[in-house]
């Protein structure tokens, strides 16, 4: 199954800076997801995105976060003012339909100093 | 809220032997999906196997099979003929036919040569 690509693979930023993580689906799927995994912890759902709208979000996904698909292809996660605790692996996933298998990208490792 | 529990933080198996990883979940839904994902040191999330709750037959994928006990809310993964490349973190995940995956805490599998 084709997956997604994510850029950058690694990002180091200073606390308070904005970061944008990108996800590029290989196939034309409509359902996208962002998850994060703090080192040594479980994978946590952030948000799902369907048809250019947020369809579901978790408590973690507060006003600091936003998602969009600006050019109809790339799917981005923006973190407005990063905190130390935002250091984590961020995964993009995609599926053909809701409740179908979600296929994950390789992740972006974010380090906030 | 749904919860997924993996009670074995670490497991060890001899190469070519069989190992079973445990997973239990809590839900009031009748229609849902269960997954096992593998996370090698690269930290990419790789789908291992999927089970639909409405199917009584246990899913199998080559050396990987599940024991799905719906009444007991149990979903264990059996790996037969273990190989060195099977060494990884394994995450059990639940999807309530909606958007989000809920993950367990993971089991680290070590394979001894």
Ranges of chain B where pLDDT stays below 50 over 5 or more residues in a row are none
User: What percent strand of chain B?
Assistant: over 45%
Number of strands of chain A: 11
Helix content of chain A: under 10%
The number of helical elements of chain A comes to 0
Order of H and E elements of chain B: EEEEEEEEEEEE
As a whole number of angstroms, the C-alpha radius of gyration of chain B is 13 Å
So what's the overall shape of chain A? globular
How many helices of chain B in DSSP terms? 0
Task: Give the distance, in angstroms, between the N- and C-terminal Cα atoms of chain B.
Answer: 41 Å
Instruction: Compute the number of strand runs of chain B.
Output: 12
The coarse silhouette of chain B is globular
Structural class of chain A: mainly beta
What does this molecule look like?
The complex is a heterodimer of chains A (113) and B (113). Chain A has 113 residues and is an all-beta fold. Chain A is built from no helices and eleven strands. In chain A, 0% of the residues lie in helices and 52% in strands. In chain A, the strands form two sheets. In chain A, strands 2, 4, 5, 6, 9, 10 and 11 form a seven-stranded mixed β-sheet that branches. With 113 residues, chain B is mainly beta. Chain B starts with a strand and ends with a strand. The mean pLDDT of chain B is 94. Chain B is globular. Chains A and B meet through strand 4, strand 5, strand 9 and strand 10 of A and strand 5, strand 6, strand 10 and strand 11 of B.
């Amino acid at each position: 199954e084709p997956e997604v690509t994510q850029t950058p693979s690694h990002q180091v930023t200073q606390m308070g800076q904005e970061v944008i993580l990108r996800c590029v689906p290989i196939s034309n799927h409509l359902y996208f997801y962002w998850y994060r995994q703090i080192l040594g912890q479980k994978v946590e759902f952030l948000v799902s995105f369907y048809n250019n709208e947020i369809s579901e979000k978790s408590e973690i996904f507060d006003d600091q976060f936003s998602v969009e698909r600006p050019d109809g292809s790339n799917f981005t996660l923006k973190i407005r003012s990063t905190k130390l605790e935002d250091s984590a692996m961020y995964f993009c996933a995609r599926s053909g339909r809701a409740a179908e298998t979600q296929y994950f990208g390789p992740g972006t490792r974010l380090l906030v100093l | 809220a749904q919860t997924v529990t993996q009670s074995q933080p670490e497991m060890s198996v001899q190469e070519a032997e069989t190992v079973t990883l445990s997973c239990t979940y809590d839900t009031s839904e009748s229609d849902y999906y269960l997954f096992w994902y593998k996370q090698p040191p690269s930290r990419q999330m790789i789908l291992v196997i999927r089970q639909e709750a409405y199917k009584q037959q246990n899913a199998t994928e080559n050396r990987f099979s599940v024991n799905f006990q719906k009444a007991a809310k149990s979903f264990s993964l059996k790996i037969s003929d273990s190989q060195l490349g099977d060494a990884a973190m394994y995450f059990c995940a639940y999807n309530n036919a909606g958007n989000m995956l809920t993950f367990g805490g993971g089991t680290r599998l070590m394979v001894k040569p």
